[in-house]
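Work Package 4 report. The design task specified in the project plan requires that, given a folded chain encoded as structure tokens, an amino acid be chosen for each position. We show below one input record used in the internal validation round.
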């Protein structure tokens, strides 16, 4: 919608795990290095945790993109399974192995034979499990038992668990002590740690989308960092919405006025954005109609109503329409 206005090849802040858009902050660089070393060392178990939206899945996809060693990798992201038998079907599917009309013993035997065969061919198997915090004790224990399948040549299966902090809470349980002892490497992926890093993140994604890195003014970096706590997914959400608002107002650059309006509107809804900044402190509950000044004029913009405002002094007023409605109107006009 706003790509043509800001001369972008694609939306720069889409919340999809695209490795081309992964900004390698110091935290992400360390996480990527840990994963690469774990793969080279053929560590039995490696665990990567981080808060929601920190970029764990994107980091894994970047790892797979940069692999320059012969490893047979399968990725499982459906972890809410009622039994290990069901989970085993997802594992076989990840490696393009037949799983239909087979019982647990048959699937287990097929996978063990496959791992040994791949190991003998010089292409050892690595299983990556995303959203691993949903795995229960029984499935984790069966994974540990599966890792016991070794040959005299070495370990035939490597497992990387990726999940939210609850995964570590699960692995710390006394009954999983044997599993925890087999974890060779672990890493916690933290959010971006400063307004400066947040600015670098924003500029990098604008550059990757083929746009001007200076669309967001430097004054916005601190505001966005405070509102999002440096969580990449939330930064993307704020910046994407800010571009919609900027497009609606025909603003060449995104300044703090636009970002603040985004935060106010987000906080009025269900979004977690803005809670860290406590923008609502001392402010009464949001009224059905909120007002703010247009960045480019003294005209008041009214959010939350679709009634038309009367023209004043013959001037064409955009008046009582929401920013999203105005963006839609601009899109229709541009088409």
């Amino acid at each position: 919608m706003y790509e043509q206005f800001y001369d972008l090849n694609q939306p720069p802040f889409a919340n999809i795990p695209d490795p081309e858009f992964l900004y390698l902050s110091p935290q992400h660089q360390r996480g990527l290095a840990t994963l690469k070393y774990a793969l080279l060392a053929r560590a039995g178990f490696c665990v990567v945790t981080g808060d929601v939206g920190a970029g764990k899945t994107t980091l894994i996809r970047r790892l797979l993109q940069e692999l320059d060693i012969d490893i047979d990798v399968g990725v499982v992201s459906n972890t809410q399974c009622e039994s290990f038998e069901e989970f085993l079907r997802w594992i076989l599917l990840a490696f393009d192995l037949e799983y239909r009309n087979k019982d647990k013993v048959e699937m287990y035997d097929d996978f063990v034979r496959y791992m040994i065969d791949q190991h003998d061919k010089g292409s050892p198997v690595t299983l990556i499990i995303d959203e691993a915090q949903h795995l229960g004790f029984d499935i984790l224990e069966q994974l540990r038992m599966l890792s016991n399948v070794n040959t005299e040549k070495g370990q035939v299966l490597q497992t990387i668990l990726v999940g939210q902090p609850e995964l570590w809470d699960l692995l710390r349980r006394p009954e999983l002590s044997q599993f925890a002892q087999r974890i060779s490497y672990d890493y916690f992926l933290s959010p971006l740690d400063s307004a400066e890093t947040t600015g670098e993140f924003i500029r990098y994604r604008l550059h990757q989308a083929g746009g001007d890195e200076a669309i967001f003014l430097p004054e916005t970096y601190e505001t966005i960092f405070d509102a999002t706590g440096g969580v990449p997914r939330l930064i993307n959400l704020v910046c994407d919405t800010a571009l919609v608002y900027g497009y609606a107002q025909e603003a060449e650059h995104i300044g703090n006025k636009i970002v603040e309006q985004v935060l106010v509107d987000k906080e009025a809804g269900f979004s977690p954005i803005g809670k860290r900044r406590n923008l609502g402190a001392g402010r009464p509950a949001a009224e059905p109609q909120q007002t703010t000044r247009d960045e480019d004029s003294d005209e008041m913009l009214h959010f939350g109503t679709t009634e038309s405002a009367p023209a004043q002094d013959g001037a064409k007023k955009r008046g009582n329409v929401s920013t999203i409605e105005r963006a839609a109107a601009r899109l229709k006009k541009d088409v």
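Residues 275 and 281 are 10 Å apart (CA to CA). Validation will be extended to a larger panel in the next phase.
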